[in-house]
Amino acid sequence: SYGNYSMKRTILAAFGVGLAAFSSAFVVNMRVFNFEYGETVGVPSDPVIEVGDTIHWVWNANFHSVTSSTGQSESFASGLINTGSTFDHTFTNIGDFGYYCDLHGSDLGNGQVIGMAGRVFVLAPKLAESFTIFRGLLQQGGISELASSDDQYMVVQKGFVLNLTEAPIQVIMESAPVPPVPTQLVVRWEDGVNASGLTRRVEVLNTVTSQFEQIDQSAAQLADGKFSTKTSGDLSRFVDPVTQKVKVKFSYFNVGPVSNSAYQARFDRFALLVK
Length: 275
Known about the structure:
It is a single chain. The chain has strands at 11-15, 18-22, 27-33, 36-38, 48-49, 54-59, 67-68, 86-90, 95-109, 112-122, 126-135, 137-140, 154-157, 169-175, 185-193, 198-206, 211-219, 225-230, 247-254, 264-274. It is 0% helix and 50% strand. The chain is elongated, with a radius of gyration of 20 Å. It has 275 residues and is an all-beta fold. It contains no helices and 20 strands.
C-alpha cells in the first residue's frame, strides 16, 4: 500500500456503465463572523462538499450560533458560542442545507433561512470518464482506479519530452458531464509520487481560448495526499459546449535533483464538485 488514511467512507456512485465504490473525506473550514459565514473572514460564501465531508466552523466573533433549519435530513446546533470556539458537523446526505444564527437569523422551515444565514451544498461528485497521457508511460491501472480512494492506483512513469521546458508526466482527466454554467467548481484528487524533489501543477482547460489555466502548483508528496482546489471567475469557460465535460491536466516535473530519475506519479482518485 502507498498510504492509509482515516476518516474514509464508502458509498456507491454511478460510473461509466456500472457502479464503483469510492471513498472521500475532507474537512472544510468555515468562519463565523459578524454577521455572516464564509471560508474567509469578511467574505460570505457557501461551501460545496461531498457526502462524508465535515464542515468545521471557527468563531471569529461573539454570540453567534450554527443551527440547521427544521424539516431537513441534516440536523445540527452549536448553541450560542464565542470567538475561538469551534463546531463540526459531518454531512451524510446529498442536498442543499440551510443554517442560521439563533440570535441574528431566522428559520422559515424546510431549509429556508434569513438574516445571518448560510447554506451547505452536498453534491454527488463528477468522476473521470476518460483520461489521456500526453507525456509519460502508463505502468498500471486505468479509469476504474480513479473512482475510489482505496489504495488502488493508476500509475504513470516519466516519459520522453520534446524539450526541457516540458513536464515528463502530463495526464489529462476528462470529467463526466457537468452543468453548462456552473456557479462553483471544485477540483479534488488524491495522488503521490515515488521521488522527492518533484513539483505538481494542476490546470483546467479554458474551452474559449483552448489553453490550460493553472489553478494549483505545489511540491508533490511521497505519501498519498488528498487535495481540493476551487476555481474562480466565469466557470462556463471550463465546460465544453458540446460534451459539457471538463478537462483537468496534472503535470509532474523537477527543477532540481530528484531521488529517483525514473520517477512515477500515482493517482488514487479524481473528482469534480460542480454546482
